[in-house]
Amino acid sequence: MLRGDITKAIRRALxxxxxxxxxxxxxxxxxxxxxxxxxxxxxxxxxAKLDLVLETVSAAAGxxxxxxxxxxxxxxxxxxFQVVAHALSHPLASQIIPDxxxxxxxxxxxDQTLQRLLRAKQQEIGGSLxxxxxxxxxxxxxxxxxxxxxxxxxPLYWRFAIARTAPTEAYLDALVxxxxxxxxxxxxxxxQRDTALPAAPA
Length: 202
What we know:
By secondary structure, this protein is mainly α. The protein has helices at 3-21, 28-35, 39-43, 49-61, 73-88, 91-104, 108-135, 145-162, 169-183. The protein has two domains: 3-49, Arc Repressor Mutant, subunit A (Orthogonal Bundle), CATH 1.10.10.60; 62-183, Orthogonal Bundle (Tetracycline Repressor, domain 2).
């Protein structure tokens, strides 16, 4: 196995092991066994379990999202919620991050790293969306950006990580309107129904 392949195998095995047993029961031996490598191969790359976990989770959480610019606030929110709903179904978000957040109460290094990662991800997800909406005149210029981002990303994280309930399409549609209204956007313009009378029979 090539050196790069070994590193990828270790990281993949770590994520699988974290999702299976959590940080507290995680062992280098189990990661090595799952990856099909020796413990020495892991310790050559990372000096301790904590270093391996933080570096791997940071790399996974740092993956960039696709551009989310549809030309309107509600369109951006619709696309964002679809992307985030998919991302939150991944074990990194649904199992690993909640477990590490619990561990963070006992480990300041984990706490500092996760706070930095989560805040950066929040800004990536919601910050540019809010900025674009302000520039388009859909949101007020004096909007509290931090509170806006919390409102955008909070409900879905709560539903997935805390309530552990997958949202329906109807729920996501309702959430788009609720968040847009909460942010201060004008009400959505209802679709015009065709009220023309049917043509008279020949």
